[in-house]
Amino acid sequence: MELSSKQRAYLRKLAHDLNPVVMVGKEGMNNNIVRATERALDEHELLKLRFVDHKQEKREMSRYLADECSAELISVIGNVAILFRQARDPDRRQIKLPFFRS
């Protein structure tokens, strides 16, 4: 799913008040982080990921995690990444992405 810049801005706005659900600590990126992110995306669709450690590699790790989870990397601001993956079942979708004309 390719998101437009306006859709990304909309999702950033929705994520503003969210608390980070997944934390990347001293162990860095591992299977536990990927599984936790998968579960969080299944439950929430939109989530924040905080980098407590490995802050220098946060962009690369965020892209890797988005690829592994089939999610969209919305943005990386400070030490927080925002990820989005729309629910596959239309009945379980919590976030309705607006369609913006160019």
TrEMBL record:
<keyword id="KW-0694">RNA-binding</keyword>
<dbReference type="GO" id="GO:0003723">
    <property type="term" value="F:RNA binding"/>
</dbReference>
<dbReference type="InterPro" id="IPR035920">
    <property type="entry name" value="YhbY-like_sf"/>
</dbReference>
<dbReference type="InterPro" id="IPR051925">
    <property type="entry name" value="RNA-binding_domain"/>
</dbReference>
<dbReference type="InterPro" id="IPR017924">
    <property type="entry name" value="RNA-binding_YhbY"/>
</dbReference>
<dbReference type="InterPro" id="IPR001890">
    <property type="entry name" value="RNA-binding_CRM"/>
</dbReference>
<dbReference type="Pfam" id="PF01985">
    <property type="entry name" value="CRS1_YhbY"/>
</dbReference>
<protein>
    <recommendedName>
        <fullName>CRM domain-containing protein</fullName>
    </recommendedName>
</protein>
<feature type="domain" description="CRM">
    <location>
        <begin position="1"/>
        <end position="96"/>
    </location>
</feature>
